[in-house]
Design a protein that fits this description.
The protein is mainly α and 182 residues long. The chain has a single domain, classed as ATPase, nucleotide binding domain (Nucleotidyltransferase, domain 5, 2-Layer Sandwich), CATH 3.30.420.40. The chain is built from six helices and four strands. It has a two-stranded antiparallel ribbon. Strands 3-4 form a two-stranded parallel sheet. A hairpin with a 2-residue loop joins strand 1 and strand 2. The two termini are 32 Å apart.
């Protein structure tokens, strides 16, 4: 999911891969820029600190505060949806902001593909609705950073069928599995 954070999950043979400590597939905390922005967890350069919806909105606001012109400057608060809408309307800062997020997301997913070699990658969450301004740079970066192009052969990229609430519903299902029945 690409929303307030970045989340992920791996399903193999019909089972959620949780890992030894139950922390598998924490894609949002994959380091893609060691000296990059501070993540909410306290570490630097995690993809969540660069490409989440929250990070997209924050970067746009920081650029406006630094004097960059943008139609977004008229807004008292900026969301990733605002950035997406502004990019679709041709706002250069919004386009640059989503391009930056997409490029780093491509690096993270290239690493994810190298680790898991999945048959499908499903995107959900509000910021995943950002369209070509996010996903064109994502795909370009993915192709530039992928270890072996074979990973991309027959790989399916899809939108979550459950929409923006997919991550929330997944967390609810995981919690239900963790609670023993009476």
């Amino acid at each position: 999911t690409i929303s307030t954070g970045i989340g992920g999950g791996v399903v193999s043979n019909g089972h959620l891969v949780q890992g030894y400590h139950g922390l598998a597939a924490e894609l949002g905390h994959t380091t893609v820029w060691p000296d990059g922005p501070l993540c909410g967890c306290g570490k630097r350069g995690h993809i969540e600190a660069i490409s989440s919806g929250t990070a997209i909105a924050r970067y746009a606001r920081e650029q406006i505060e630094a004097g960059r012109p943008s139609s977004l400057a008229a807004l008292s608060t900026i969301t990733s949806r605002d950035v997406s809408d502004a990019a679709a309307a041709g706002d250069l800062l919004a386009i640059e902001t989503l391009s930056r997020a997409g490029r780093y997301l491509g690096v993270a997913v290239a690493n994810f593909l190298a680790a898991f070699d999945p048959s499908i990658v499903i995107f959900g969450g509000g910021a995943s609705n950002s369209g070509p301004a996010l996903f064109d740079p994502f795909h370009a970066s993915l192709h530039e950073n992928i270890f072996d192009p074979t990973y991309l052969t027959n790989l399916i990229f899809a939108r979550a069928a459950l929409g923006d609430d997919a991550g929330l519903l997944g967390a609810q299902a995981l919690a239900a599995l963790a609670v023993p029945e009476p």
